[in-house]
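**Sequence with structure:**
===
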Amino acid sequence: MAGKKKHEAPKNNWMDTYGDMVTLLLCFFVLLFSISTVNAEKWVMIVKSFNPAAAENISQLVQEDPNDQKGEHAIGQEAGGLMTDKENFDQIFWAMKEYVEQNNLEESVEVKKGKDFTFIIFRNNIFFNGDSYILRQEGKDILDVLCNSIAPVREQVGELRIMGHTNQADPNNPNPIAGDRFLSSNRAAEVLVYIETKGLIDGKKLISMGYGQHYPIASFVTEADRAKNRRVEIYIAKNDATKYTLDEVYANIEDGSQSGNEKKEESKKTQDSVTEEEV
């Protein structure tokens, strides 16, 4: 009687495991590639999950097709050639800040932010000539940049408030009330009208206010300080954001700026000291 044949172990069975691994890797990288081309944000999240240390440089791992403007998270040239993120309300702040720095406008424009709002201070010389409320071309140009930075997130804007301020020419004598109020109000309204004609934001979300000489951010003593007081401020708040008064806006700017009351107290002390010296 013939003996039973021994079953030989299958040869090269390691290739099955290898083939499965290669297939899985191929599917994995196809998945990553498809995510990275459709939704850059998800690609970033996946890479971070595998390598948390890459969080700081993660933006270098994502490259968008500059011709693709259809994606939900499309990134394109919006504000004066600046890169803007259509999902991020804070891109208004970053786009304007970058524009100001690139064009050396720090002396004329200050860009600040707080929780759920961007706050921009425009010195009067960039918008208007002295005692005028006719918007200069330079002012229109920078408002175009602002509108371009708002456009991608227009639906997220809950309020855009424009505030005009004048300067007290004589430290010891307030300005005539009518001229002071009308000038500050007309300047704010002129800026509002220019923005509203762009059709970006529902008109009911746009507000213009004239504060006259009553919210100085510097003293009335020197020409340099008086120039700081002549300004237009634009407050852009996100939907459902807290409705701040101007004093609260000053107090909630993240860079630690003084509140409006502190500035007025400082201005008053400076004026009192000058008056005492003159006497």
